Q: What sequence folds into this?
């Protein structure tokens, strides 16, 4: 659908994440079409629930650009400190692996490492 539509989808996701984080959380674009959300002092179960809420909200609202409506989905991977790693790069790597597993399982889902 082109760069303009892609940009609008990324903006929509950024707004959704920005509205759904606590003051202590950090949400940022990590590269390309990937975002990273740090949820300090949150259990893996609660983080999974939060990610599932984001996934459902994002899939449930199409992005509009003029007469064009685009529906996009999220594939989310979760890694939890200290269970899945002690170092930031290790946690990012494990979350990335979980995200690729979510994509391999059919996309539009949340997978914990």
A:
């Amino acid at each position: 659908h082109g760069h303009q539509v892609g940009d609008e989808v990324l903006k929509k996701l950024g707004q959704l994440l920005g509205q759904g984080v606590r003051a202590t959380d950090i949400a940022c674009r990590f590269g390309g079409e990937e975002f990273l959300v740090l949820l300090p002092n949150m259990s893996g179960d609660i983080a999974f629930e939060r990610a599932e809420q984001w996934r459902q909200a994002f899939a449930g609202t199409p992005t509009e650009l003029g007469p064009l409506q685009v529906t996009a989905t999220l594939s989310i991977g979760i890694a939890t400190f200290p269970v899945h790693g002690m170092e930031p790069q290790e946690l990012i790597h494990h979350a990335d692996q979980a995200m690729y597993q979510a994509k391999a399982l059919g996309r539009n889902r949340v997978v914990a490492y």
